[in-house]
Amino acid sequence: MKNNVSPDKKEAIFESALHLIHEHGFHGAPMSQIATHANVAAGTIYHYFASKDELILELFKYCRERTNEHIFNFDKDLSYQDKFFYIWDRLIEYYIANKEIFRFIEQFYSSPYYELVVQSKSPCYYGANHMLDFYEEGIKTEVIQKVSFTVFISLFIGSATSHVKGIVYRMVPVDKQDRKDLIEIIWNGIKNQ
């Protein structure tokens, strides 16, 4: 990507790509269509992104950063349990309010693009270090059981995304009590007794 990038144009490209990928998939959203949708000249989009692969990878980074800004925006003085509940609930709220981001991230993880990230980045790519730091805080302070990070993520993020899928795909109604019950069960399963 070249210098002198207009943040507004870049964001317009990201938002257009999100919308078109949601509607047509990765392969059904060519760069020319993304540029037109974003009101950017077809040649200009290549000023921002050298290829569609680069655009997709940068879009993933953009989505992850926006998500992390939302879910890790809490008072540092909260107890670990309160942070646990807060982060989980904020992730669900964010994905429900930003369905295109949720669907893009889900699609991205199931695509060959994710392999490019795995090959080129550390395990703490695009803000994953926030979740790793949160996990390590719980282990270090012995508030949660000593499980692997993989188990922690599967339990914490996996349950949140599964809950969001149920709501987004209209398999389950939006029910605050169900959400509260679910996080209580997760917390009771992982906290140190």
Task: Describe the model.
With 193 residues, the protein is mainly alpha-helical. It folds into two domains: 1-50, Homeodomain-like (Arc Repressor Mutant, subunit A); 63-190, Orthogonal Bundle (Tetracycline Repressor, domain 2). Helix content is 70%, strand content 0%. It has ten helices and no strands. The protein has helices spanning 7-24, 31-37, 45-48, 52-71, 80-97, 99-109, 112-120, 128-140, 149-168, 176-190. α1 crosses α6 (99-109), α5 (80-97) packs across α6 and α5 crosses α10 (176-190). The N and C termini lie far apart (50 Å). The mean pLDDT is 88.
Blueprint (SSEs and pairs):
Blueprint: H1 7-24, H2 31-37, H3 45-48, H4 52-71, H5 80-97, H6 99-109, H7 112-120, H8 128-140, H9 149-168, H10 176-190
GO molecular function, one term: DNA binding
Keywords: DNA-binding
Pfam families: TetR_N
Please report the total strand number as a whole number: 0
Query: Spans with pLDDT under 50 lasting ≥5 residues?
Result: none
Shape: elongated
CATH architecture verdict of the largest domain = Orthogonal Bundle
Order of helices and strands: HHHHHHHHHH
- What is the residue-averaged pLDDT? 88
Q: What structural class do the secondary elements suggest?
A: mainly alpha
Largest sheet: none
**Helix proportion range:** 55-70%
Instruction: Indicate the CATH class of the largest domain.
Output: Mainly Alpha
InterPro entries: Homeodomain-like_sf, HTH-type_Tx_Regulator, HTH_TetR
GO molecular function, one term: DNA binding
Protein name: Transcriptional regulator, TetR family
Keywords: DNA-binding
